[in-house]
């Protein structure tokens, strides 16, 4: 009955006994096979001249033609540069939820703290469409809140949504605004599990509040922070499609075209299936390699790792 | 939340110097907290009051704390737009059906994977986790959906992407940590099979995790527009978010065109509608949110527990 039996006969007995569990797994396994693994096989079209009439298997091979095409196109350096700028910029804001969590942890557990937490999680539930709609309204130089603020002080408001140089800033800081509270929950949870006797000992030793934060709270958050950081670095070239696509317009397109929006446009808007898949595959592979590298590095340096 | 009272309740620091630095820190902290709250709340509050205000007052920067020139025209305009209500209906349908499917698929898979006596548990876990880091990408997935004749159907909005690996991991952790290990042994001695045990004993004990996942999945469906953008063609099947995108974002550029009185009125109403449409799309979630907040937090914390 105990796990860890290794003889095949015992394993088969276990499978027979637990057939009910396999039945419970069946829907998820079937859906994953059909809608996650089958498309993985479809990645082959990145190496083929895909034609819908011939299907994936029937289409002739193209080798690395579409990868070459991408590497030699103007959009190669441009999309990668834009994607990297956005993701590295986001990465820099990584400590902000941690600072927020440290702050919340210092608040006395009263009404204000509860209110503060409730409000800070709220924007997380706004949909991307509404969020970008909000940004367009509020950041409009002529009628928006920002425009009004500038005119109040007699200045000319910049067109934040139509700017190439400010695109990444607008993207990243609006993200911080929306998700900082939510992202802090995990750190608040980690802090609430700190052994109270540590604080008592520190108090006896005459430590100031700041020192307790510095020498107890922050070290306690490191394992959680590193795990999350690994995931973030692993997704460095995986900037999400949804928000960037909605924020794009003719004015900011040179700095807002990222890999995922380009994949969408090439693939679905201009129906170059093989080319789009090649770009997509390149992106996925780089992400995968990054994730493994960062994970190895973190294993060596700090014994924190994902697996 | 297991809230601690570090330092705050123990104001018996031995060194005087520390106490004064502590209170300075406290003051700075609360000032930052209040500023932070204003930055979070004000933009949302502005949208609410702007939705009840005369658009020329909004555009002229006269709306700051209270509605100016109170009007309900924006909301009345909404009633005329039938597609918003069709979208609303579609979103409710997708959310309800999609959440139901998602719960069944993910909870049952998670329970099976949480059982240590499941032969092949490691491989099965890897089977799911691998899809988090590697996928076929946009076009191969699109082609798969088309091959299954699911393009532009109700089914594509609720079934193919219902396996959430992160959700499965969170629920699995919950089952592992909160179900007493000897419960299954005892039930087994009484002749209870896996399925009956899952349905009659596990599920009633797992209301918390069902609530958490149900809410996560539901919010995801309510807010998503990507799948609809890719897989739907028929406007009568569009979910609310896609219709919002057309109103808030795509049509934005056109609203500046046209002249004459009729165009002016149309422009005025279109502007007002941008505010009211944000309100009606976001209110349902914001209304439910305070009541379910604690489940969301719990979910994040369960997810944070590492095996």
The CATH topology of the largest domain in chain A comes to MetI-like fold
Number of domains of chain B: 2
Mean pLDDT of chain B: 85
Q: Helical stretch count of chain B?
A: 13
Q: What fraction of residues of chain B sit in β-strands?
A: under 5%
Strands of chain A, count = 0
**Secondary-structure element sequence of chain A?**
HHHHHHHHHHHHHHHH
How far from one another are the termini of chain B?
Answer: 20 Å
Gyration radius over CA of chain B = 26 Å
Query: What pair of chains forms the biggest interface?
Result: A-B, 109 and 111 residues
Q: Give the biggest beta sheet of chain B.
A: none
The CATH topology name of the largest domain in chain B reads MetI-like fold
Tally of DSSP β-strands of chain B: 0
Stretches of chain B where pLDDT falls below 50 for ≥5 residues?
1-16, 252-256
Question: Element order, helices and strands of chain B?
Answer: HHHHHHHHHHHHH
Proportion of residues in β-strands of chain A: under 5%
CATH class of the largest domain in chain B: Mainly Alpha
Main structural class of chain A: mainly alpha
Subcellular location (chain B): Cell membrane
Domain ABC transmembrane type-1 (chain B): 88-278
Keywords (chain B): Cell membrane, Membrane, Transmembrane, Transmembrane helix, Transport
Main location (chain B): membrane
């Amino acid at each position: 009955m105990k796990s860890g039996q290794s003889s095949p006969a015992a394993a088969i007995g276990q499978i027979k006994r637990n057939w009910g569990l396999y039945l419970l797994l069946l829907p998820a396994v079937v859906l994953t096979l059909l809608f996650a693994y089958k498309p993985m096989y479809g990645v082959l079209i990145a190496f083929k001249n895909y034609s819908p009439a011939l299907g994936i298997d029937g289409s002739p091979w193209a080798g690395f033609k579409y990868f070459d095409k991408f590497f030699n196109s103007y959009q190669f350096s441009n999309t990668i540069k834009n994607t990297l700028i956005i993701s590295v910029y986001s990465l820099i804001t990584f400590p902000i939820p941690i600072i927020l969590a440290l702050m919340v942890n210092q608040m006395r557990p009263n009404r204000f703290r509860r209110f503060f937490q409730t409000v800070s999680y709220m924007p997380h539930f706004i949909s991307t469409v509404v969020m970008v709609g909000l940004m367009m309204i509020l950041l409009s130089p002529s009628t928006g809140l920002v425009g009004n603020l500038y005119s109040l002080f007699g200045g000319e408001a910049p067109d934040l949504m139509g700017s190439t140089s400010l695109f990444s800033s607008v993207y990243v800081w609006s993200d911080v605004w929306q998700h900082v509270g939510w992202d802090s929950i995990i750190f608040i949870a980690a802090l609430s599990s700190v052994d109270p006797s540590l604080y008592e000992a520190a108090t006896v030793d005459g430590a100031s509040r700041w020192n307790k934060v510095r020498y107890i709270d922050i070290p306690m958050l490191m394992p959680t922070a590193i795990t999350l950081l690994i995931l973030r670095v692993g997704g460095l070239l995986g900037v999400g499609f949804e928000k960037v696509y909605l924020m794009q317009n003719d004015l900011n397109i040179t700095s807002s075209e990222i890999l995922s929006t380009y994949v969408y446009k090439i693939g679905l808007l201009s129906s170059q299936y093989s080319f789009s898949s090649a770009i997509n595959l390149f992106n996925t592979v780089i992400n995968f390699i990054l994730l493994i590298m960062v994970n190895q590095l973190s294993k060596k340096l700090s014994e924190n790792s994902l697996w | 939340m297991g809230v601690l009272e570090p330092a705050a309740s123990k104001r018996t620091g031995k060194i005087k110097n520390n106490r004064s630095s502590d209170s300075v820190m406290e003051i700075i902290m609360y000032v930052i907290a209040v500023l932070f709250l204003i930055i979070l709340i004000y933009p949302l509050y502005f949208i609410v009051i702007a939705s009840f205000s005369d658009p020329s007052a909004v555009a002229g920067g006269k709306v700051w704390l209270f509605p100016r020139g109170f009007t309900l025209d924006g909301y009345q305009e909404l009633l005329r737009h039938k597609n918003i209500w069709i979208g609303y209906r579609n979103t409710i349908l997708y959310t309800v059906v999609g959440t139901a499917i998602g719960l069944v698929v993910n909870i049952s898979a998670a329970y099976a994977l949480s059982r240590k006596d499941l032969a092949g548990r490691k491989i099965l876990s890897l089977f799911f986790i691998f899809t988090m880091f590697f996928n076929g990408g946009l076009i191969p997935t699109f082609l798969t959906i088309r091959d299954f004749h699911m393009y532009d159907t109700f089914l594509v909005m609720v079934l193919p992407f219902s396996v959430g690996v992160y959700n499965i991991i969170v629920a699995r952790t919950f089952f592992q940590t909160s179900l007493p290990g000897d419960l299954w042994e005892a039930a087994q001695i009484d002749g209870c099979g896996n399925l009956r045990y899952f349905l009659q004993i596990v599920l009633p004990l797992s209301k918390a995790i069902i609530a958490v996942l149900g809410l996560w999945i539901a919010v995801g469906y309510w807010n998503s527009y990507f799948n609809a953008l890719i897989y739907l063609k028929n406007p009568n099947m569009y979910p609310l978010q896609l219709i919002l995108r057309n109103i808030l974002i795509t049509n934005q550029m056109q609203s500046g065109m046209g002249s004459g009185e009729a165009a002016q009125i149309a422009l005025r109403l279109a502007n007002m509608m941008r505010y009211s449409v944000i309100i009606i799309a976001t209110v349902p979630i914001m209304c439910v949110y305070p009541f379910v907040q604690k489940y969301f937090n719990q979910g994040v914390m369960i997810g944070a527990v590492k095996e």
